[in-house]
Structure formats: C-alpha cells, structure tokens
C-alpha cells in the first residue's frame, strides 16, 4: 500500500487550470521532492495532499483512505504539514507551539503528559531551538520560526510529513541538518516525506524520487538523475542550465548559467 496516492488530480481556481491530471505516489519511508518553477502548482498539490483543498477530479488517498473520509483530528494524527509561510499572529511561545503537535494524539479533555513534553523537548533539540523555548513566535528570526514549525510537525509523530520549502530561510548548516533529520525519519521510522523545494541540488542528494511540475502539469518524474536533466530543466525553467555530477556522489548537480557567460 502506498502511504500517499494521488491519482489523476485536476484543480482550478477562478476559471484557471492550476493542476491538470497529476498523479503521484509515495511509499512508506520514501522521500519525494516536488520541484518546478514559481507558480507551477507545487504548493497547491501539497495543500490537496493535506486535505486543505478538494480536487475538481481525481482522488487523493493517504494510508489507503480517501483524504476526504478522515476527520481533521484523525488526519492530524497521521499527517503533518509544515506550510511555506508559518503564521506569525499566533500568540504562543516556542515550547507551547511545539507541544501543540501532540494535540491530535490526546483525548478530548486530556492534558499533555510527561511523554508528550519529552517528545516536544526532543523535537526542539533536534531542530536546535530548545534555547528559544520561552520566546514568543513573533520574536524569532525567519529561520528560527521555520525550525520551530518543523519541530512541531516532528513532535506530531506523523506517518506522512508534508513540507513546503522547509529549507528556504535556513543557512547551509541548518539546511543539511534538517535534511539529514528528514532522511533519518524516512529510513529509521518509515515516515513518508514529501517536500516542495527550490533547492534542487540539496533535494537531489536526499530524494528517492522527484516530481517536476511545470504550468500545472507533470514535466518529469523519477529518480533525481532522470528528472534533473539539462533538457527537462531548461524546458521547464526557461533558462540555460548546466548539469553535471555532484562530486560528493552519483547524483546530478545543476547550475543556472548567467547570460554574461554566453550562449
Ligand atoms: N487563491 C488563489 N486564487 C487564484 N489563483 C491562485 C490562488 N492561489 C494560487 N493561485 C495560482 O495557482 C498557481 C499555482 O500556485 P502555487 O502556489 O501552487 O505555485 P508554486 O509552484 O507553489 O509556486 P512558488 O514556487 O512560487 O511557491 C499560480 O499561478 C498562482 O497564481
């Protein structure tokens, strides 16, 4: 059984086709990266997977069940989403925010227990934000806030983790740290990770498979070396792109070529 199965999904807004006939699957413990130019539909696809939007046609299944058949609470016990823009207006402190990840696992009137607090502490330590535990969210830098929301998702102990550009505001050390952690969740705990990213070289070093979206359609799908080809990337992104092999291993590495370097 696939942990995530999206079959022939189409989605429109205000009469405009945003996604057309998209299919995507992720097995248990698989790491999938969704890539593509701005406006290609990546966030929309992730929101459909998270049950925040309903497709016009096609089907979105999580863990063998239609997303629409879950209650919000049941769904949150299995699937966590780290959105691209994390809410700033929440009046919470860091530790409270991370602990909120436990809510779907608690009974209706049940308070968090010692185990929940331990999980929250561990998630904060993993994300390097435990020293900020008492700080309010609106008093953090963008990268710190992003790490807090990833910690909350980890604390939720989901079987499927959806992340929208999780490394976008992060410095190189934190980018690699978070990707290592996500890989560990896949390999050691069987969590399925689906990540939207513009960090193509970073994604290539971790993802088992990639889905390249372009103008709402599938432009490529497969292992990183099958998707990150010069031909597919240049066609999708509309600029010159050089692709070679990453010196660290047998994965592709891409570089956009500035115009001043000639045709
Ligand atoms: N609320 C909305 N109403 C109408 N169109 C929308 C709405 N939200 C998004 N869109 C359009 O849907 C398309 C896909 O948007 P989406 O945010 O999914 O793209 P994306 O691939 O995640 O882009 P980016 O890389 O810039 O984050 C875009 O053309 C966008 O303008």
From TrEMBL:
Alphabetical list of InterPro entries matching this protein: AAA+_ATPase (IPR003593), ABC_transporter-like_ATP-bd (IPR003439), ABC_transporter-like_CS (IPR017871), P-loop_NTPase (IPR027417)
Superkingdom, natural source: Bacteria
Record-annotated ABC transporter domain positions: 4-240
KW rRNA-binding (keyword) present: no
Gene3D superfamilies: P-loop containing nucleotide triphosphate hydrolases
An annotated Gene Ontology molecular function: ATP binding
SUPFAM superfamilies to which the protein is assigned, alphabetical: P-loop containing nucleoside triphosphate hydrolases
Pfam families per record: ABC_tran
Keywords for the protein's UniProt record, in alphabetical order: ATP-binding, Nucleotide-binding, Translocase, Transport
PANTHER family linked: HEMIN IMPORT ATP-BINDING PROTEIN HMUV
Role summary: Part of the ABC transporter complex HmuTUV involved in hemin import. Responsible for energy coupling to the transport system.
Protein name: ABC transporter related protein
Organism: Desulfonatronospira thiodismutans ASO3-1
């Amino acid at each position: 059984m696939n942990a995530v199965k999206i079959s022939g999904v189409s989605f429109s807004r205000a009469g405009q086709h945003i996604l057309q006939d998209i299919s995507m699957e992720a097995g248990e413990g698989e790491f999938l990266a969704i890539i593509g130019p701005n406006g290609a539909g990546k966030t929309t696809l992730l929101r459909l997977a998270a049950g925040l939007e309903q497709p016009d046609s096609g089907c979105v299944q999580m863990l063998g069940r239609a997303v629409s058949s879950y209650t919000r609470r049941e769904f949150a016990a299995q699937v966590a989403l780290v959105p691209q823009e994390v809410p700033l207006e929440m009046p919470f402190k860091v530790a409270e925010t991370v602990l909120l990840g436990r809510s779907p696992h608690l009974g209706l009137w049940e308070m968090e227990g010692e185990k929940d607090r331990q999980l929250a502490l561990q998630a904060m330590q993993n994300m390097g934000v435990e020293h900020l535990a008492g700080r309010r969210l609106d008093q953090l830098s963008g990268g710190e806030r992003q790490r807090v929301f990833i910690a909350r998702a980890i604390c939720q102990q989901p079987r499927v983790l959806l992340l929208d550009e999780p490394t976008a505001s992060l410095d190189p050390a934190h980018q690699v740290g978070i990707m290592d952690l996500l890989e560990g969740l896949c390999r050691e705990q069987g969590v399925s990770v689906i990540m939207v990213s513009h960090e193509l070289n970073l994604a290539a070093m971790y993802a088992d498979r990639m889905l390249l979206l372009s103008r709402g359609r599938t432009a490529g799908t497969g292992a990183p070396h099958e998707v990150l080809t010069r031909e597919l990337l240049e066609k999708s992104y509309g600029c010159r792109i050089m692709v070679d092999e990453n010196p660290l291993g047998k994965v592709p590495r891409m570089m956009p070529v500035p115009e001043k370097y000639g045709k």
